[in-house]
Design a protein that fits this description.
It is a single chain. The chain is an alpha/beta fold. The protein folds into 4 domains: 9-22 and 190-344, MoaB/Mog-like domain (Molybdenum Cofactor Biosythetic Enzyme, Chain A), CATH 3.40.980; 24-46 and 159-188, Molybdopterin biosynthesis moea protein, domain 2 (Alpha-Beta Complex), CATH 3.90.105; 52-149, Molybdopterin biosynthesis moea protein, domain 3 (Molybdopterin biosynthesis moeA protein, domain 3, Beta Complex), CATH 2.170.190; 354-419, Beta-clip (Beta Barrel), CATH 2.40.340.10. Helices cover 17% and strands 28% of the residues. The protein is built from 7 helices and 26 strands. The chain has helices spanning 9-17, 170-178, 221-229, 247-260, 278-284, 325-344, 393-396; strands spanning 25-29, 41-42, 52-53, 57-60, 77-83, 97-100, 112-115, 119-122, 132-135, 148-149, 160-162, 184-187, 192-197, 201-202, 217-218, 239-243, 263-267, 288-292, 296-297, 303-309, 314-321, 354-358, 369-378, 381-384, 401-405, 415-419. The strands form 7 sheets. The protein has a 6-stranded mixed β-sheet with strand order 7-4-6-5-9-8, with no helix packed on it. Helix 1 (9-17) crosses helix 6 and helix 4 (247-260) packs across helix 5. The mean pLDDT is 93. The structure holds ligand LQZAQKY5 and molybdate ion. Molybdate ion binds at residues 297-300, 322, 324, 327, 390.
Length: 420
């Protein structure tokens, strides 16, 4: 009997993401790097703004409908002017050529630029003052428009240069700047609360092993999840909370967190133990459970719920990750990060992982979706990192990410690869 709400992780994520809408916008934001655009960037001018040269060379016009193959290599042709980037183009005299530098404006009437190395240059003498050139044989091979970047060939004034939903990284920052903008409308940062639960957890800063009894462990999930959030520049520094296994305390913590954040991520307490309070608390605060348990390893007990915030009329996801460190880490990447991307307003929020081929497959077959730690072994290739199960965080430290195999799979791939 199939007792799972969804057969595969992708469907479960889609269902949880469905009611989510991007967070509010912020106008005139000046600190754009890493932010998600909430409106288009429109070109204020043609790009390029004029016909410009893509090479250092000589701008010429074929005077009659002749082919460049008819250029005479023995002719001494006077250089009648120079087109220097930052200055307007000189007039073109049709008995000569214009020396032009990369980025310089192509004078009206010129139909191509022939690169300097296809010429023999005679240094400037008194007359003509800019010297002369002769063509080398290669010049004969040029065609109309060669080495000219045409006005508006990249984009015309008034057209959309960037669309909303794009994350501003280096290239986008350059695009925005080239159209004269120093501010833009972006989505505000996503507010994330991370709540670790469990009485066995001690502070991760507990450095002395002597004073840490063996029934206590350091809270490694907290820095793991905090670091995963740092891969998203549009997420505000997450609020980190630790709550003991006390239902009242936990319920209040989740309610407070959901009121002040866009998403709440919990680890631990989602399974079937007497002290696993997350499922009951999620229901008690009025959140709708979308799934609890998926056909997945590790992370089978994972919980996904939607809290409808009456104050803001927004849907806020609650992701209950299993406490085991491997399950929590993979679950956060697979489930929480795409939801955060959607909340952030990222256009392509659905994970589009690269794929890898496995060097070797083991003999084991699983009847569940199987997230398996791998280490890259070459371009597009990976090897399995064999660990001792979902508690073996140490083996995860040797991995670059994980692949996801569907049930009963036993071939080398290609498999979707989710990197850390
Ligand atoms: N009877 C059943 N028991 C369990 C089932 C089941 O189906 N039936 N599922 C198992 C699976 S699979 C998982 S995964 C775990 C999930 O359990 P919980 O989410 O309730 O997590 P906890 O019990 O709180 O912790 C599990 C494990 O992880 C350690 N942990 C917890 N938090 C942290 C942290 N912040 N940093 C480091 N380590 C952490 C914790 O000490 C436990 O060892 O349930 C199975 N049981
Ligand atoms: O499914 Mo659990 O995450 O393996 O221990």
């Amino acid at each position: 009997m199939n007792h799972y709400a969804f057969d595969c992780p992708g469907d479960a994520i889609a269902a949880l993401a469905e009611p989510l809408t991007p967070v509010d916008v912020e106008h005139d934001c000046g600190n754009l790097l890493g932010r998600v655009l909430a409106g288009p960037i429109i070109a204020d001018r043609d790009n390029p703004a004029a016909d410009v040269s893509a090479m250092d060379g000589y701008a010429i016009a074929m005077r009659r409908p002749v082919e460049s193959s008819e250029l005479h290599c023995n002719d001494e042709i006077p250089v009648t002017g120079e087109s220097i980037p930052g200055s307007p183009a000189p007039d073109f005299a049709d008995f000569g050529v214009i020396r032009i530098f990369t980025g310089g404006m192509v004078p009206a009437g010129c139909d191509r630029v022939i690169q300097r190395e296809y010429t023999i240059e005679t240094p400037a003498a008194k007359s003509p003052p800019l010297g002369t050139i002769r063509w080398r044989a290669e010049a004969k091979l040029t065609r109309p428009a060669d080495n000219i970047r045409g006005r508006a060939e990249n984009i015309g004034a008034g057209e959309q240069a960037l669309s909303s939903g794009v994350v501003v990284r280096g290239p986008q920052a350059g695009v925005i700047a080239s159209f004269g903008l120093t501010t833009a409308t972006v989505h505000r940062l996503v507010r994330v609360a991370i709540i670790t639960t469990g009485d066995e957890l001690d502070d991760v800063n507990h450095t002395s092993n002597e004073s840490l009894p063996p029934w206590k462990i350091r809270n490694s999930n907290a820095p793991t999840l905090q670091s995963l959030m740092a891969t998203r520049p549009y997420v505000a520094s997450p609020t980190m909370l630790h709550v003991p296994d006390d239902p009242e305390h936990l319920q209040k913590a989740v309610l407070d967190a959901i009121a002040a954040h866009d998403i709440v991520i919990l680890t631990g307490g989602v399974s079937m133990g007497d002290h696993d309070y997350v499922p009951a608390i999620t229901a008690a605060i009025g959140a709708k459970t979308i799934f609890h348990k998926l056909p997945l390893r590790p992370g089978k007990p994972i919980l996904g719920a939607i809290y409808q915030d009456a104050d803001t009329s927004t849907a806020k996801p609650i992701v209950g990750l299993p406490g085991n460190p491997v399950s929590a880490t993979m679950g956060a990447v697979r489930f929480a990060l795409p939801l955060i991307d959607k909340l952030a307003g990222v256009m392509h929020w659905q994970a589009t992982p690269q794929s890898v081929m496995l060097d070797e497959i083991g003999p084991k077959i699983l009847h569940l979706h199987w997230m398996r730690a791998v280490r890259m072994s070459g371009p597009g290739r990976a090897e399995l990192v064999v660990g001792k199960g979902s508690g073996d965080l140490v083996s995860l430290g040797a991995s670059d990410g994980f692949i996801e195999m569907p049930p009963n799979a036993n071939h080398p791939g290609p498999w979707p690869f989710f990197s850390w």
